[in-house]
Amino acid sequence: MTTSSGIRAVIFDMDNTLHNLHAAAQAAADAVSLFCGTEFTLHFTPLNRDRPSLPGEFKDFFGDEKTASQAFSLYYMLELQCLREFDGMREVLQSLKDAGIRLVVLSNSDGHSVYPRLSLMGLDGFFDAVFVRESFAEIKPSPAVFSHVLDFLKMDAAEVLMVGDSRKKDVAAARACGISAMHAWYGSWEDKDKLCAAEIPEDILSRVL
């Protein structure tokens, strides 16, 4: 289906675009802090880090391997359990799907992080494809990554919209490839993109439909 906007597919970043990783990480960090009786803060908590990089950081922080292992297991379990999609996101995805818009996830996180998160939130069924760090030789903001996704969709760049919380890796990178882009400002810590930004997930529908 082609909408009045000309958009036939939407590429979504994952963390802090579909769901609030910041809030989940904070909640998990607070719980681990209580468990360990130590100051476990977000200065150390690796927001937007992939799971394989975490154990070493826990060991550096806690010192002994046993405590680090317990803290890491607790943190990762709680982070997953605390994940929630942004308010209205599920309805946005359903509306796009009902309108015949193809949906894709394009994340720089590895599959060990992305697939469990999507599954646990029950969002995996909305997407035609999920591309992670291991999917391609390069990651965002490389133009090659966006070219691969366009090849998968069999669409021109002008028919696709990118939505992401990073102005550099998602928004600017997509636009450099001729893809329209929308800054997921509702989940970003960056200044709002002046050209096109979503203050709430429902703004994505306004842009596409």
User: In percent, how much strand structure appears in the residues?
Assistant: 5-15%
Note the overall shape: elongated
The helix tally amounts to: 8
| Span between termini | 11 Å
Fourth CATH level, the homologous superfamily of the largest domain: HAD superfamily/HAD-like
The average pLDDT value, as a whole number, equals 89
CATH topology descriptor of the largest domain: Rossmann fold
* Helix-strand topology string: EHHHHEHEHEHEEH
Question: Helical residue percent?
Answer: 40-55%
Strand order of the largest sheet: 3-2-1-4-5-6
Structural class, judged by helices and strands? alpha/beta
Summarize the biggest pleated sheet: 6 strands, parallel
Structure description:
The chain is built from eight helices and six strands, in the order E-H-H-H-H-E-H-E-H-E-H-E-E-H. With 209 residues, it is of the alpha/beta class. The chain has two domains: 9-19 and 86-208, HAD superfamily/HAD-like (Rossmann fold); 22-82, no CATH class. A six-stranded parallel beta sheet has the order 3-2-1-4-5-6, sandwiched between helices. Helix 1 (21-36) runs antiparallel to helix 3 (65-82) and helix 4 (89-98) runs parallel beside helix 8 (202-208).
Structural key phrases:
alpha/beta, single chain, 8 helices, 209 residues, 2 domains, Rossmann fold
List the helices and strands and how they pair.
Elements: E1 9-12, H1 21-36, H2 54-62, H3 65-82, H4 89-98, E2 102-106, H5 111-121, E3 129-131, H6 143-153, E4 160-164, H7 167-176, E5 180-184, E6 197-198, H8 202-208
Parallel strand pairs: 1-2, 1-4, 2-3, 4-5, 5-6
